[in-house]
Hints:
Blueprint: H1 14-23, H2 26-53, H3 58-83, E1 89-91, H4 93-102, H5 108-128, H6 130-136, H7 140-160, H8 167-182, H9 187-202, H10 226-254, H11 261-275, E2 283-285, H12 306-322, H13 324-332, H14 335-358, H15 364-375, H16 385-404
Helix pairs in contact: 2-4, 2-12, 2-14, 3-11, 3-12, 4-10, 5-10, 5-11, 7-10, 7-14, 7-15, 7-16, 8-9, 8-14, 9-14, 15-16
Amino acid sequence: MTEPSSTLAEPATPREKRQLANDLHASTVAAGLVSVLIGYASSAAIIFQAAQAAAIPPSQIGSWMWALGIGMGLTTLGLSWRYRMPLLTAWSTPGAALLVTQLPGVAFDQAVGAFIVASVCMLLVAASGVVTRIMAIVPAALASAMLAGILLPFVLDIFATVRVDPWMPLLLLSVWILCRRWLPRLAIITVLMAGIAISLARGDFQVAQVSLMLTRPEWVSPAFDLATCLGIGVPLFAVALTTQHLPGLAMVRSAGYSPPVGACLGTTGLASLLMAPFAGHGINMAAISAAPCLGEEAHLDPHRRYTAGVAAGIGYLVLGTLGATVAALFAALPEGLIAVVAGLALMATLGGAMTTAFSDARHLDAALVTFAVTASPLTLAGIGSAFWGLIAGLVIVALGAWRRA
């Protein structure tokens, strides 16, 4: 598939605006909002841990959340609108985890310099086209097996929650099953609303403790220290590429789309570069949080699912302007509720990924190994299991091709 020459969203014509209005559906809006919920609730605490490791003041923590929210909103909205497919972006959660261990003792202006180095490296990779060539050799069965391995722990968390709070997950699972029969495209938003209602009734969700205020971004003039750039910038780039971009693009591909790889990497790299002076550590393609927008639960028509990306982009922009306030709001939600909603939102996508992964007899062994390694807690050289699962599967595919030759 030939990629359009521009990576930026062009001004919408009246016809395109009418098309967007016609393509929007309650299910696509719900899918977009669930993606935002998963994106924030699953790892906002890691951002605060990284900020605390850097010993920066609360105002800069708010600026960090503002930079990430605005960057994700603009890129998600622009890419989904421009290419008419759900192309969601996210902050680098493994990158934030890396910063928790690497930022102590590092001046924050030098850390910002390292963020810029990581962004420039991503732009160079986008220009080289190497990721496009990598994606071209990955069989669909392996991409789907990797996706299934990524999603499996989230689905299993539904039932792990039963040990701590049996009624919440069982009630929400019942709501999900009933809605899948009669209101399949509104299943997740119904589950979310039911979960919030249960939490309010039990007193587990204290909204009054969260104050609402806009976030003002703060500029941090970068400083470039060679040791910091090599110790933080280069690993931050490598982690984002291997554990976020490759799985995220493979996920979009497994849903039947042909994502514009160069445009996605270039757009997110540019957004990361622009947001780095406001403390944003990096924006990349979403993997887990994109799943609700890619399957039939978002919409039966794949050509209309891009509006889920548009809804998610708008949601990110709204939450970005609120910064740390939004993170506190998500933190106020019961942990069990987040786990159950996330798992149920990914259940149908997991089923579709497993069907695709294991229906091709030619790549069955490779898909099984990819799925098993990805679902495991394996980490080597600071790189997570999704990357190594894909590598293991590709090795088995290559050995099979060599044997046949």
